[in-house]
Design a protein that fits this description.
about 700 residues, mainly alpha, Hypothetical protein af1432, 3 domains, two-stranded antiparallel sheet, transmembrane helix
Length: about 700
């Protein structure tokens, strides 16, 4: 079926197919997004009769009614009081400081001339008490009161202080609120007047100090009260206008409240609003235009561009279907369930199957489409919060995907995506003006984590279907195949260590050369790892594996040696097919020698048979079909030839590179792939630079005779 599809594409023309696919993608986008941007509106006026019954087309919160209900309940909340036990100590300490100031002023200096007059003592005492006089409670002691206190002896002052402290402690140990302060001050005045220990001549001063000492010790706990008010406000369920709810009956007068509700749901114009549809068309044009630019600028051939376009189209369609499902069920939840959307799914798939540039484009587009389709609020057309949520999650996966070492490790990236999602949710909750309960916070963070893990799980699940349906070899699959623990690579290492080392060297050459001309360097590298696996069938017949043993070809006729050497490509392809390896890797094994001539044994056989048919000593082929295999064929010949040189120099290497490439060109080995002479020039330059650093001495083959 894949071959039939390829034949159809070639018949119609890849460019036409790609343009048709781009157009189809635009139609799909418009169809999915159209419902998200349009709504019915009505031309209605205040205090007129409604000509029909109008129902709400969406569920929105009624902030006015919600706030009114919250205010009603918060007004009923009684303030919470807290008893301040430390006030007793504070007030008695203040009374003690008052009497301490008095006794300090009364203390007579040793020298007669330094002693203060009564007026000077009152002035100094007034200065000491200034802070207490300017406090909130305001100590108001007149000069006469201060004079009477100064006239007492130190013993009497201490006695009066103790009596006042006892009375204050007795009163302050009871709960006193602000409104009760006056009553307790009156009570302490009465207690002071009844106290016979306090002299009558200082009774006014004692009354003033006693009243000063009485303050409220049970005050409103603002923090606790605020929490209670907040709990009450958060417990209020938002009043909502529900989808399908009747806003106005036919014949009903449209009063201000009804009109406000109609405005709230955006249904106050009786004409079809073409603006959203036109805006959506512009959005789709931009989206498909960028899609065309991204894919057309790919360095792949037309066939691969069409494949990439189809992958992008299918990935976007999957994302839109998931959005549609979430949008359809969102009305059953009071919370925003859009955060469950797998943010990194599209980015992961495109990055693995196409390239990073296309993945960034698709992530940006999917995030924008989600802003239109996925509900997260009640008024905005474009939900920026959801758009950014998907954008950040997708970009996180794209820029971490290169570090993945296998399909299982993709879940590690999912954890990073989940972390990014959780951080964005934290930003979303902190930035918003809405107060969230702990259960709501837990819901949103759980959704973020599920979104990240779901992205990786779905990507792993979808990858095999994409690879099978479109015949693609993903980066993830190539990385898995490059693992040295792969059974076939371990087989090469254990049975043909020389071939294994040769393959690594060829891989370095091919990878660097492919990257220089925009070909798939990773594919070339992995293909090189397996290109000579056919040598494991007869390892001792290949010179790189002949360590401390006699060359068996010295005892064989050229025909037998030919059969063994020429068969290693066929054997390799068969072994790779048996292990269900990707077609691209099998092609490398089968095509890396093309139909080139096995010159050494051909000329050896020709010595005894001058009429020998050259074709019998050529590889079966086919010739390289891709740039990557063409480069591998050059690197394979070059690495073996350089390692066989004695005392190689940069000049010798350059001449050898030119010679091998020229020989393959003349032999027509590149006729069936689209590698250009300009690209071959770059390849030669890269290989010269690379070989100067990695070659080692190697046995030199006997010179060929013509």
């Amino acid at each position: 079926m894949r071959q039939k599809a390829q034949d159809l594409f070639e018949k119609l023309g890849y460019r036409k197919i790609m343009m048709a696919g781009i157009l189809l993608t635009g139609i799909i986008l418009y169809g999915f997004l159209m419902d998200s941007v349009q709504s019915d509106t009505y031309d209605i006026q205040l205090f007129q009769l409604s000509s029909e019954t109008i129902r709400s087309e969406k569920t929105v919160e009624d902030p006015v009614k919600t706030e009114l209900e919250r205010q009603r309940l918060t007004e009923e909340v009684s303030p919470s009081y807290q008893f301040m036990s430390e006030i007793v100590d504070n007030q008695t300490a203040l009374v003690a400081s008052i009497f301490g100031y008095i006794m300090d002023v009364k203390a007579a200096p040793e020298q007669e001339e330094d002693r203060l007059t009564q007026e000077e003592m009152i002035a100094e005492l007034r200065e000491d008490l200034r802070l207490l006089e300017t406090s909130d409670n305001g100590l108001r002691l007149t000069d006469d009161m201060l004079s009477s206190l100064l006239s007492l002896s130190e013993a009497r002052l201490i006695s009066v202080q103790e009596e006042l402290n006892n009375l204050l402690q007795s009163s302050l140990n009871e709960s006193i609120r602000v409104e009760e302060v006056a009553r307790y001050r009156t009570e302490i005045e009465q207690d002071i007047r009844r106290n016979e220990t306090i002299p009558n001549d200082i009774i006014q001063a004692a009354l003033t100090i006693g009243r000063f000492g009485i303050i409220a010790n049970e005050v409103v706990n603002e923090e606790l009260t605020a929490k209670q008010v907040e709990q009450i406000r958060n417990s209020v369920e938002p009043t909502r206008i529900l989808q399908g709810q009747v806003l106005v009956q036919e014949g009903q007068v449209i009063d201000r409240e009804v009109y406000r509700q109609l405005e709230l749901v955006g249904m106050t114009e009786e004409r079809l609003n073409y603006k959203p549809l036109l805006g959506l068309l512009i959005f789709v044009i931009i989206a498909v235009g960028l899609m065309f630019i991204v894919i057309s600028r790919s360095k792949k051939d037309d066939k691969n561009k069409v494949t990439e376009m189809l992958v992008v189209m299918v990935t976007i369609s999957i994302s839109l279907i998931l959005m549609k499902l979430l949008s359809a069920i969102s009305g059953n939840f009071d919370l925003v369930i859009s955060f469950f959307f797998p943010t990194a799914l599209a980015g992961m798939l495109i990055c693995l199957l196409v390239n990073e540039r296309a993945a960034v484009y698709v992530t940006i587009f999917v995030s924008a489409a989600a802003g239109l389709m996925l509900p997260s609020g009640y008024s905005a057309t474009l939900q920026v919060d959801v758009a950014f949520y998907i954008l950040f999650g997708g970009l996180t996966a794209i820029y971490l995907i290169d570090r993945v070492g296998g399909r299982g490790r993709l879940l590690h990236i999912s954890l990073a995506v989940a972390g990014t999602n959780a951080l964005f949710v934290a930003f979303y909750l902190l930035l918003g003006q809405t107060q969230y309960s702990w259960s709501e916070v837990g819901f949103y963070f759980s959704a973020a984590i599920v979104s990240g893990l779901l992205s990786g799980a779905l990507a792993i699940g979808f990858l095999p279907f994409f690879e099978s349906a479109f015949g693609m070899l993903s980066t993830m699959r190539l990385i898995e195949l490059s693992n040295p623990n792969h059974p076939l690579l371990k087989k090469i290492l254990m049975e043909t260590p020389g071939t294994y080392h040769h393959s690594l060297m060829v891989a370095n050459l091919a990878d660097a050369s492919c990257e220089a001309i925009g070909a798939n360097g990773l594919l070339a590298r992995v293909g090189c790892y397996y290109h000579d696996i056919g040598k494991t069938k007869y390892p001792q017949f290949f010179i790189e594996n002949q360590v401390n043993i006699e060359n068996p070809h010295d005892r064989l006729p050229p025909e037998k040696s030919r059969d063994i050497i020429l068969a290693h490509g066929i054997h390799g392809a068969q072994m790779l097919k048996k292990h269900k390896m990707p077609k691209e890797i099998i092609d490398v094994a089968a095509q890396h020698h093309g139909t080139s001539l096995l010159k050494f044994f051909y000329y050896k056989a020709k010595e005894t048979n001058p009429d020998l048919d050259e074709n019998t000593y050529r590889y079966q082929g086919p010739k390289p079909q891709t740039k990557e295999i063409a480069i591998i064929s050059i690197a394979d010949s070059l690495e073996a030839a350089v390692r066989s040189m004695k005392e190689p120099t940069s000049e010798k290497i350059k001449k050898l590179v030119d010679s091998i490439v020229e020989d393959k060109l003349k032999d027509g080995q590149f006729e069936e792939c689209d590698i250009s002479l300009k690209e071959l020039k770059k390849v030669k330059a890269v290989m010269c630079d690379t070989l100067n650093g990695i070659f080692h001495s190697r046995i030199e083959y006997p010179k060929e005779t013509n």
